Amino acid sequence: MSAEDYCDLCDLPKSQCIHGNPPAPPPPRATARTATPRAGRPVVKKAAPSRSVPRKWTPPEAFRPDIVAVLEEAGGQLEQEELFRALEDRMAERLTEADHQTTPEGELRWRYAARRARQALIADGEMTKGRPGVWSLG
Question: What pLDDT does 71 receive?
Answer without folding.
Answer: 94
